[in-house]
C-alpha cells in the first residue's frame, strides 16, 4: 500500500492527480464519496479550487449530489421526511442522467441543481458547467453504492475517492453541524445517530470500490489494499 502524507502540498498533488484524469483537451468526472461528516464536501471543494488555481479559472467544477435531494413536499407525500438524506430520498436516476450529460455535452453549458441549506431545498440551475470545463468533481454519499441506479455511476467516473473518517469524529462533526442549523443538542445527537448513522452503515461498506482512500483526519492508517492519502478535512 502506497502512503501519501497530505499537508497543504498534498492538496496540490491530489489536484494534479485529478487534472491528469482529463488528459489534454478532454473532460473527466472524479467521484468523491464518503459518509455524512467524513469531510468529502470539504475535500471536493478544495480539490476543485486548487485545480482552478493550477490550470485556470473554470477548469474544474464542484458538483455535489445534494442538489438531487427530493423536495420537502415530495418527501412529505412519500412519508420519508423524517429520514431525509437516506438513499431513497434522492433522485438517483436524475443524478446519473446529469453525469451522462456532463460527459456527452461538451459543446454547450450544462446546468445542475444545488442544495441550499438556508431553505433546506434543492435549487435548479445553480451550477454551470461550461464547455471549457475539464474536470467535474462529483461528490456525495452514494456514488459507490452497488444498487440501481447508483451502480451506473462508477463506470462514468475516471476515478473514485472515498473519504474515510472514524465514526466518533463523524458523529462529533455532525452534531455540531446540526446544532448550527438550529437543532437542539438532543435533537442533533438523535439525528446524527439514528438517521446519519443508519445511512453510514450502507456508505462505509462501499469503500472497497474506491480507487483511492483519503483519510478524513490526519495520521490514521487506511484500509489494507488501497492507496491512502492523509488529509485534515475538518469542515
Care to describe what's here?
It is a single chain. The chain is α/β, with parallel strands linked by helices and 235 residues long. It is 35% helix and 22% strand. The strands form 2 sheets. The protein has a 7-stranded parallel β-sheet. A two-stranded antiparallel sheet has the order 4-5. α1 (8-20) packs across α2 (40-55) and α5 packs across α6 (185-204). The longest helix has 20 residues, at 185-204. The protein is globular.
Total helical segments: 6
**Strand count:** 9
Specify the structural class: alpha/beta
Calculate the terminal CA-CA distance, rounded to whole Å: 27 Å
Q: Secondary-structure element sequence? A: EHEHEHHEEEEHHEE
List keywords for this structure.
seven-stranded parallel beta sheet; two-stranded antiparallel ribbon; 9 strands; globular
Write the layout of secondary structure elements.
Layout: E1 3-5, H1 8-20, E2 28-34, H2 40-55, E3 60-64, H3 72-78, H4 92-104, E4 110-116, E5 121-129, E6 135-140, E7 159-164, H5 167-180, H6 185-204, E8 212-215, E9 227-230
Parallel strand pairs: 1-9, 2-6, 2-7, 3-6, 7-8, 8-9
Antiparallel strand pairs: 4-5
Helix pairs in contact: 1-2, 5-6
Can I get a quick summary?
The protein is α/β, with parallel strands linked by helices. It has helices at 8-20, 40-55, 72-78, 92-104, 167-180, 185-204; strands at 3-5, 28-34, 60-64, 110-116, 121-129, 135-140, 159-164, 212-215, 227-230.
